[in-house]
Amino acid sequence: MATMSPSPEPVYPDYETETSQTSKLIKKFKETPFVPIGMAGFTAVVAYGLYKLKHRGDMKLSLHLIHMRVAAQGFAVGALTCGVLYSMFREYVVKPKE
Question: Quick check: pTM over 0.90?
Answer without folding.
Answer: no
